[in-house]
Amino acid sequence: MSxxxxxxxxxxxxxxxxxxGPWAWHFAxxxxxxxxxxxxLLRPGLLPPNGRYLDLGCGQGLLASWLHAAATLHxxxxxxxxxxxxxxxxxxxGLDMQATAIGHxxxxxxxxxxxxxxxxxxxxxxxxxxxxxxxxxxxxxYLPATAQxxxxxxxRSRLPADGRLLLRVGDGAAGLPHHLSRxxxxxxxxxxxxxxxRLHCRPLAxxxxxxxEVGFHTTPCPMxxxxxxxxLLHARPV
Length: 238
Ligand SMILES: C[S@@+](CC[C@H](N)C(=O)[O-])C[C@H]1O[C@@H](n2cnc3c(N)ncnc32)[C@H](O)[C@@H]1O
Fold this sequence. Notes:
Elements: H1 3-14, H2 22-34, H3 36-40, E1 50-56, H4 62-75, E2 88-96, H5 99-108, E3 116-120, E4 133-137, H6 145-158, E5 164-170, H7 176-191, H8 204-213, E6 216-221, E7 230-237
Parallel strand pairs: 1-2, 1-4, 2-3, 4-5
Antiparallel strand pairs: 5-7, 6-7
């Protein structure tokens, strides 16, 4: 993705967070501009052309704002010819245990043209609705090992055969970069009003083995400019 397109997307996707206050806005700008996850999601083939999204541990709902911004720019005159058309969201459903983050998401996503549902809840006992795409970005390591496996089993049973799970996990074998990433995760949860979370990490091979056990085939996806501690996985039902 060109720097010009990236800058326009970051501006457009973060602007709706301004009314939610300086923290929400600066966080959105920093995360959308600095995290290679978001540009990677616009690469062809990773997400379906159209679909219902279930974003588990959605935080402020940045994913929905990012995809909405991409669709808006794509409809205008400035979308680069060499950039693939962005995925369209037919509905977005986000869940997070932090009421503050969900409050920011509600404010920011109020203008989306697709149906948006945002809930405060604990994904360990949440009844999963139907979705074509389920996302778990930097979330699984907040759950104890048994709860991780239970959630992945429930996701697998809920996804249609052509559905997909996109998740980003920390590679617990990556040493110092992994520890730094986890410190940042803890600080973000703390800054948004949560407590100090206890984190439960695995090496990348163990994450992939667990996903295989519950019925997913996983492919690691490159993220330009990313360190090697966080890995984006594309998981399809087998
Ligand atoms: C590092 S943040 C990632 C937020 C978002 N996925 C993103 O990429 O911007 C992890 C999120 O997971 C949420 N979370 C952790 N454990 C949870 C649980 N048991 N139920 C619901 N949300 C949870 C936290 O509140 C936090 O917002």
